[in-house]
Amino acid sequence: MHPSVLIVACDGRPSDFMADPSLSRNLTWVHTTPGESVVAAMDRHQPGLVLVYSGTAANSRVLASVSHIKRRFPTTPVFLVARESSESLAIGALKAGVDDYFKYPLRAKALLAQIEQKLGSDNENLSKGTLSKDASKGYFPGKLVGESRIMEEINGLLERIAIVDSTVLITGETGTGKELAAGIIHTKSTRTRQPMVSVNCAALPDSLVESELFGYEKGAFTGAVTPTRGRFEQARGGTVFLDEIGDMTSLAQAKILRVIEEKAISPLGGGDPRPLDFRLVAATNRDPETLIAEGVFREDLFYRLNVARVHMPSLRDHPEDLPSLVAHAIDCLNLKFGRRVKGLSTAAMDALGQHSWPGNVRELMNLLEATYINMPADTIHFADLPVQFQRCLEDSRHMPENERAAILSALMETNWNKSTAARKLNWSRMTLYRKMAKHRIVEERRHP
Ligand SMILES: Nc1ncnc2c1ncn2[C@@H]1O[C@H](COP(=O)(O)OP(=O)(O)OP(=O)(O)O)[C@@H](O)[C@H]1O
């Protein structure tokens, strides 16, 4: 059977490439019906991949579609086909989590090859049982890239933790490699032949907690036409990776605590609890101790999860690893784009060194991927870096001193607690991070 691809058209219908014989012979196109939401169409068709087609819709609408699908279906690959491509759309799409980006004029063969490769490699990872579809997204170097002392210590810690089968809690800012660390723990553990299944706890509304985590029997509710295994059962014998646990609802927290205590699950509409063997690795980019103090995270659940603890450092805490991370990204991107880029010019590398990377390694990876879309030659020069990045560096050279001083004083007063400092300044945490990057404000102390 051909893989099915759901077309989500933001504007107009991409009838030209859908009719291309090389695509229509090898893929089954499926669509939303008039008035049907994307989520309903996803549930109805269960497509292997979603292809968002921008048409002439505004970038914000296209990006909102991509983010919405990625949030609700984090394991399904999403490709974007942009009729009116621009650098800001490409960067926005990568940030929104798009798995691949194509622009007009579209080469049907290249699109088909990427779709087949994406679906093929995910299936291969699944059947090998080394990494689940979820954890294999992005690049998997087998260990954290970086030769700094802090990275070597963390690589050593991950190896030691991997073999003991304890529950692990991984903390650190967004993009620092928490999911990658979870994948390393799983692949180096004795459970490596069984699957690792990720659960994005932030995307688990109360109405879906039980069906998503524990599955359901036929007839458990209207629309439950076939028995479906939940995420814990899919990981039987392997590892469950609970991502973004700091954003879980209290119902989800209660349900997960119960599974940990009982090591058993009860599918909706099912009978007695079924015993289950799994290892739990959890992650959050929020400070769990603060969440407990604020009363939004259960202390009993925290103690169940916080058995082994790994804190992933922010990239600004180990800038000496920038060159090896850049080299790793270039290797991966050369493979992905079929290019032979050798490296960065000194000016381009210096520019990367001046940025404080609030989005950490993910931001670095995305920046370099966006640079490839600009088709660099064998060396990436400063002018090849995305214009937005160049502008951001330029702006930081002409910053208003009073804003910088206000940020610094809020950070000092709060002992560099970003959430509290952001509240003091009446900003969101993301705005504070953006402004810290803009003003090149870097915390000098290291995490304990
Ligand atoms: N030390 C590293 N070596 C190689 N790749 C890395 C490293 N750290 C992060 N990455 C890469 O950066 C990207 C983001 O990493 P990952 O998704 O693991 O971050 P995260 O901390 O889980 O982010 P979030 O909190 O937003 O979910 C991935 O492509 C990952 O492979």
TrEMBL record:
Residues of the Sigma-54 factor interaction domain: 144-373
Keywords on record: ATP-binding, Nucleotide-binding, Transcription, Transcription regulation
GO molecular function: ATP binding; sequence-specific DNA binding
Superkingdom of source: Bacteria
UniProt keyword Transcription present: yes
One GO process term, biological-process aspect: regulation of DNA-templated transcription
Keyword Nucleotide-binding: yes
Protein name (database record): Acetoacetate metabolism regulatory protein AtoC
Lineage: Bacteria, Pseudomonadati, Thermodesulfobacteriota, Desulfobacteria, Desulfobacterales
